[in-house]
């Protein structure tokens, strides 16, 4: 192909991708604001009168919004997913309330979660914890308020006072719910891993090669509060085969295909020791050692152990996306056409400004999904310095408050006054994390 012609083709492809992304952004934002408005009406009229009906109707409003993003994974990029595990774990998954402990390495791990839960027909009942600031974000944040997500302030002394009440509301759901926890607190990057390793060494915690050191206080509270209320916790491990392209949302928009491999293991919540903080913390650290071994074996074999079940893409997400693309996109494009053909400079300037604004929104939405933008974990102070200052921070809230000190001493050994004071200081530091 002639270099000039090749340049023209590449330019046309990039322009087409930009126009497609802008159109998807317009449709998603306008339809999302409509859903937020309908959710508000439902909340005011039904939440305190008939909560069961509210949740049933709200489920579909959440579904219509989220599957527009899911369609990018399923249909734009033609990406797939395979489940690994024992038959009971795969069969039971999605049929009961459960807590999910998942690794947090990839930019699109949340999309894979949506893909799996959509196949299980419980997409809109997927719950998680999020930082309180997200409540102010239109469409996503506002929708999460009405979806009864758990918003936290990153201050465990305050959060633990309301966490139990928020968990009870989720437990009260008639249909199965999945409470997703990223106990690492932020996505994995080499810089964050280095900081995590230093932190683990300073606390005599297990050294993980493929994960960050899990933060335990949030998980400890949830496990203890939900015991005998939620039947199980799932260990879920996500991995992608090594390819030239990284599994990012921007690459999904470009049409690059990925195949996610997901291992799941059902564990009764009653098997999690909750008699003491130390026992629960130790159980979580041992779980992450197991997750580390799973990833290590996967990198050698490119598969997880157990039965393999391939999940095919759903036509429901495609139909939903096409419907909203027509319902909102066509009138919007026709309006732009009428304005541009009038030759009115003022109206044309307004339309151009809107396009620039929407492109900026799209750019920051995609950029926010990148792991490097998750938090400043490991990119500022050294872990030891941050721990001393009580500011060892994570970008996300899921399990981020640490109670990671597991005292190492022989059974029956009596600590000296100095050891007790050191241990209490460490406990205080971790409570501030």
Automatic annotation (TrEMBL):
Claim: Plastid is one of the keywords in the record: no
InterPro entries found in the cross-reference section: Acyltransf_C, Plipid/glycerol_acylTrfase
CDD domains per the UniProt record, alphabetical: LPLAT_LCLAT1-like
Gene Ontology CC: one annotated term:
endomembrane system
Where composition is biased (Low complexity), the residues are 422-433
> Which residue ranges does the record annotate as region Disordered?
374-433
Q: Where are the transmembrane segments?
A: 15-46, 317-339, 345-366
Q: Which GO terms describe its molecular function?
A: 1-acylglycerol-3-phosphate O-acyltransferase activity
**Could you tell me where the Basic and acidic residues compositional bias lies?**
406-421
Q: Which UniProt keywords apply?
A: Acyltransferase, Membrane, Transferase, Transmembrane, Transmembrane helix
Coiled coil, from the record: none
**Which residues are in the Phospholipid/glycerol acyltransferase domain?**
98-220
Q: Which family does it belong to?
A: Belongs to the 1-acyl-sn-glycerol-3-phosphate acyltransferase family.
Name listed for the protein in its UniProt record: 1-acyl-sn-glycerol-3-phosphate acyltransferase delta
Gene from which the chain derives: Agpat4
């Amino acid at each position: 192909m002639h270099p000039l012609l090749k340049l023209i083709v590449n330019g046309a492809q990039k322009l087409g991708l930009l126009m497609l992304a802008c159109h998807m952004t317009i449709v998603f934002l306008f339809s999302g604001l409509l859903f937020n408005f309908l959710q508000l009406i439902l909340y005011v009229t039904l939440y305190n009168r008939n909560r069961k009906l509210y949740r049933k109707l709200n489920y579909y409003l959440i579904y219509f919004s989220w599957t527009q993003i899911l369609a990018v994974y399923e249909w734009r990029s033609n990406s797939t997913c395979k489940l690994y595990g024992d038959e009971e774990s795969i069969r039971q998954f999605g049929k009961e309330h459960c807590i999910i402990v998942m690794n947090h390495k990839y930019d699109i791990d949340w999309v894979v979660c949506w893909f799996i839960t959509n196949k299980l027909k419980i997409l809109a009942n997927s719950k998680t914890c999020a930082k309180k600031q997200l409540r102010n974000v239109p469409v996503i944040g506002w929708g999460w308020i009405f979806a009864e997500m758990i918003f936290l302030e990153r201050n465990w002394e305050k959060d633990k006072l309301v966490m139990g009440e928020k968990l009870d509301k989720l437990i009260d759901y008639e249909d199965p719910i999945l409470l997703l926890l990223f106990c690492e607190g932020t996505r994995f990057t080499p810089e964050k891993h280095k900081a995590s390793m230093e932190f683990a060494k300073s606390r005599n915690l297990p050294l993980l090669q493929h994960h960050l050191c899990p933060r335990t206080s949030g998980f400890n509270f949830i496990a203890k509060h939900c015991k005998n209320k939620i039947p199980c916790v799932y260990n879920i491990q996500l991995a992608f085969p090594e390819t030239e392209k990284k599994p990012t949302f921007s690459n999904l928009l470009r049409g690059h295909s990925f195949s996610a491999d997901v291992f799941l293991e059902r564990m009764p919540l009653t098997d999690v020791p909750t008699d003491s903080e130390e026992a629960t913390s130790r159980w979580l650290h041992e779980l992450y050692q197991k997750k580390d071994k799973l990833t290590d074996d996967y990198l050698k074999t490119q598969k997880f152990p157990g039965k393999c079940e391939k999940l095919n893409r759903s036509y429901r997400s495609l139909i939903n996306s096409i419907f909203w693309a027509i319902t909102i996109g066509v009138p919007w494009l026709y309006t732009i056409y009428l304005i541009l053909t009038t030759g009115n400079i003022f109206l044309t300037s307004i339309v151009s400004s809107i396009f620039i604004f929407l492109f900026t929104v799209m750019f920051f939405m995609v950029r926010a999904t990148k792991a490097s933008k998750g938090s400043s974990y490991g990119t500022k102070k050294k872990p030891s310095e941050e721990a001393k200052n009580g500011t060892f921070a994570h970008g996300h809230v899921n399990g981020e408050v640490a109670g990671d000190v597991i005292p190492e001493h022989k059974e029956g050994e009596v600590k000296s006054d100095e050891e007790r004071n050191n241990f209490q200081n460490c406990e205080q530091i971790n409570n501030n994390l």
